[in-house]
Amino acid sequence: MCRSALLGLSLVVVILSVGGCGGILPGAGPAPVFYQFDYDTRPFDCPRPFDKRVRIREFSTASPYDRLEMTVQRPGGEVSFSGTYQWVAPPGRMVAESLERDLSAGGLFPAASLEPDPSPLELTGRIYTFALEQKGGEEQAVLTVGITLTNTGESEILFQRIYRLGSPPVPEREAPLFASAMSELVGDLSFRLRQDLCSLGRGDVASSGVAFPLPRAAGIPAQCCGLSPSVVSPNRAAFHLFAQFFSPTSLSAEQPKPIKLSVGIQ
Asked: Per its UniProt record, what SUPFAM superfamilies does this chain match (predicted)?
């Protein structure tokens, strides 16, 4: 009888340990669960594509967002990491691979590749924020990326821009919903970048974003610069894109807030 009771208790423990709702910061699970980007690339037809191939380098990522573990950024700068829910590759690699796929299929360049070769053009980037951000009683996926297009033959910067994107609220820190929200942000980043590069190819300097340098600081505060939401894609009316282009003055005036790391959170 005692043995039967112990077996029943063990069964209950096992059910509770695997029957969670997929929260990003649960108790320790039996094994890591991995996620990757999954979004439908929005078609974009540029009437004047570039006539030179481009090499895409793996993006660098500011700490502490350069980890496989899903990251939650709390108010006050505290950052926590999931011990169970992770990405299949570092964020910089995943974003670069997504852009390689979309640029290869979009017709902007004759070819786009991550493979090292002497390409005349080079696309590089740095991720400043890649997390689920808690703010104002809500949580949303946040992605901040700086991207540069360089003519390597002439050592000339053709394009520089920083994109800040935020998703609608993500309920209850659900890992699958966070992964889906971040995927949509990367898809929106890809679409906006292709729009900007098309403008650059047409010689629209006012839209090319070449007038200011990227910051050399380790990161950009998520709360900076008075960001406001705007709907970018009519076919995704429920999905808001936050994009802000920074001037040298606003960058120098903004001081990054310290980041506190939570150690040992599963």
From this structure: XCC0632-like
- Cα gap 144→128, rounded to integer Å: 5
For residue 173, pLDDT over 70 is answered with: yes
Domain ranges of the chain: 46-248
DSSP 149-199: EEETTTTEEEEEEEEEEEEEE-GGGBHHHHHHHHHHHHHHHHHHHHHHHHH
pLDDT reading at 8 higher than 80: no
- Kindly report the pTM of this predicted structure: 0.70
Angle at 26 between CA 24 and CA 31, to 5 degrees: 90
Q: CA 68 to CA 61: how far, in whole Å?
A: 12
SS3 4: helix
pLDDT digits (tens, 9 = 90+) for 103-161: 988 788 988 999 988 889 999 999 999 999 998 888 999 999 999 999 988 889 999 99
Lookup: tokens for 225: 């610069």
Give the pair of three-digit tokens for residue 160: 């520089």
For the domain made up of 46-248, give the CATH fold.
Rossmann fold (3.40.50)
pLDDT tens-place string over residues 24-35:
655 555 689 999
* Structure tokens belonging to residue 66: 């350069």
